Amino acid sequence: MNVAAAIRLGRWTVGVSIGGLAALALGIGVASAHQGIPPGQTPATAWGFITNPVPSLFLLAAVYFYINGLNNWPNKTHPINIWQKASFFAGILVLFFALQSPMEPLAEHYFSVHQVQHLLVRMVGPLLILLGAPLTPILRGMPPWLRQNVIRRIVRQPAARWVYGKITNPVFTVATFLALLYFWQAPGPHDLAVHNDWVHELMHGTMLISGFLFWWIVIDPKPHRSRLHYGLRVLYLGLIVLPNTLLGAAIVFQEGLIYSAYQELPRPWEGFSHQSDQILGGLMLWVPGDMMSIIAAGIVMFMWYQREMEENPNPPLPTPELDGDDES
User: Fold this and answer.
1) How many alpha carbons lie under 13 Å from residue 73 in its C-beta half-sphere?
2) Contact criterion met (CB below 8 Å) for 48 and 99
3) Quick check: 19 pLDDT over 50?
4) 8 A C-beta contact, residue 66 and residue 134
5) CA 161, 162, 164: angle at the middle one, nearest 5?
6) Model confidence pLDDT, tens digit, residues 214-260
7) Fewest C-beta in 10 Å: which of 114, 123, 210, 246?
8) Could you tell me the sign of the dihedral formed by the alpha carbons of 63, 68, 71, 76, in that order?
């Protein structure tokens, strides 16, 4: 099989998958998505896409547009290297694992699993996808009618540019990122999201969008350029460490149970107490969340160094100064 045939086969497979999932989504609907692990199933067999395939539709569409765009980009202004491609597909897999694997129904039984899910949705998935520089490939991979008649008309509107400028303001992005975290961790909204299907979808959707907006300022995938200098980006990442630490510590050291929703469904592993589950969930919010900020700061510093080397590949060597004795 030659390369062209393999590409056509890949496109056909993705198209069939999207069509099948769309039919499944129309037949099932979102309302049946959040009922925990169904009776008669185990955590290994209760896949989220069976009850709610909508996230898979979006992920498959993103993969299709990305691959199609790479194949229809003859004169690349900024080539996408293999590591960027790997990062993009890793981010897609992370989101699939978080939203469509058995983690999705299992998160309704365990607070700690829910926190791992949120970490993947808010931080890991968006970061990896944006490191893959997906903007140009996805736009080039869209059908011409969508790219020219919809996307182009929207971005040319002054109102759309004004909204874009506001929602990508660094103050807005970091404030929204933290505000949504605190809001959805509050007992009332959190328990409601576990109980109500549509609120649960709203929680995941807002967390995902806030994650992309937050990392958009940090990673600035080409051709986008962040308005923040690299040094300010490191400070920007540091702004979320203390609030994240305080929230995680407050959950870890709380003596009583904070969330009542996890006590209502039977649990696959009853030996793991609700209190231990809450402590572990707080630790997952606290430690990995802070580590992600530190790792991202390291990535930004590497990008800073790389940018400096591109702009000034042969910096002049400092001239040694002679003291008085050498001059004489």
Assistant:
1) 21
2) yes
3) no
4) yes
5) 60
6) 999 998 777 777 888 899 999 999 999 999 999 999 999 999 999 99
7) 246
8) negative
